[in-house]
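In the current project phase, work has continued on tokenised descriptions of protein folds. One protein thus recorded appears below exactly as we store it.

——
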Amino acid sequence: MADFVIPELGENVVAGDVVRIMVKPGDQLKKDQPVLELETDKATIEVPSSVAGVVKEIRVKQGQKVKVGEVVLTVDEAASASAPVASQSASADKAADKTADKPAPSEAAPAAPAAAPADKPASKVVDINRAPSRPPAASAPQAAPASSAAAQVAAAPSTRRYARELGVDITAVDGSGPGGRVSVDDVKAQARSIIAGGGAGARIAAAPLPDFSQWGEVEVQPLKTIRRITAERMAQTWATVPHVTQCDKADVTELEKLRQKYAKKAEKAGGKLTITAIALKVIAAALKAFPDFNSSLDVAGNALVLKKYVHIGVAVDTERGLLVPVIRNVDQKNIVQLSVELAEFAEKTKAGKLQPAEMQGGSFTISNLGGIGGTYFTPIINAPEVAILGMSRSVMEPVWTGDSFEPRLMMPLSLSYDHRVIDGANAIRFLRWVCEAFEQPFLLSLEG
């Protein structure tokens, strides 16, 4: 018999809601066959099986919340033609985890396999989009894969590897398991504490709500996973990042003519030449001119992480909540290519097929509400990024040209930024640069 557990689902994804169970007891299960459909804070994904055999017992129910490492079902491997390989693999994994439960010196061997020294050591300044930086008071050099102190910590090899990848000193992690055993969740909690500056990220307990039913009829709806996680992250970002929002208007009269002129070219390529696609190119150029806006603040390492890549997230409104797919290497693509990729991502996002990896690694975010309406708004920064651009609906306004008023199409822009990294003067310079780029479309090339 073998247990299939929820595998790692992606960066910072620790749990999900069971949307659909795709097998039943008695089914012949193949390796890599989809077993569950889970809704996480990132996306709805199908979880493939790592074992093969006959399904004997299913231990989860539809609608249940499950965590990474939780047992989903039990499989009789002997009933599968691929049983020998799968059985050996499962047995090896179990043996490794059991060994990790014993805080003995002999644990140093599985905790630090021969390949471990080849792993990248955690540098003091890393990409915070992927993981928090190692705290300044790190105990032992990363070159020593398993110190005697680390060997005494009760933790599975997979947990140790995860801690190494995040740059977290496992000896400094408080284990919540039996006998102080350290879990992946414990490592993540330590990482969050580090990135928040140590203790600063502790949540403030919300005041209890009154019983609203005493005044009339109410209906209580459980928050969907994406909405719940969005609420938690927005609250944490708002509490830890000092936001400032700067507003301005861009004259997009000529740009709109250009957009209409080249719209058919984008359609032939399979995309739609929207103002958001053009904005991607504008922001990519702006980030080159103002590198501080393409950075993340490493509080623990007392450093600023300047990113050489340009990956821009675009907020997409869906029935399940707000999702932000990331368009990569925007600076290396022309506007037509960006319009095609943006259309593909929008369709994929609304269909619930966006993968967690496709929402990671962003260095700046654009949120365009112009298709709905409104004038200005104050977008919340998608931490650990340091800025986000909000775009509102363009409207025709009378603009004084020096001699007379002329009707011009004006687009409101709202730039929110992290005041720990960006000062107001630099923020308005950035926003003015963006406005002028929108106003002078000849500076933008559809071919590169």
Remarks:
- The two ends are 57 Å apart (CA to CA).
- The chain has three domains: 2-101, 112-195, 242-443.
- DSSP finds ten helices and 19 strands in the chain.
- Residues 81-147, 198-205 have pLDDT under 50 and may be disordered.
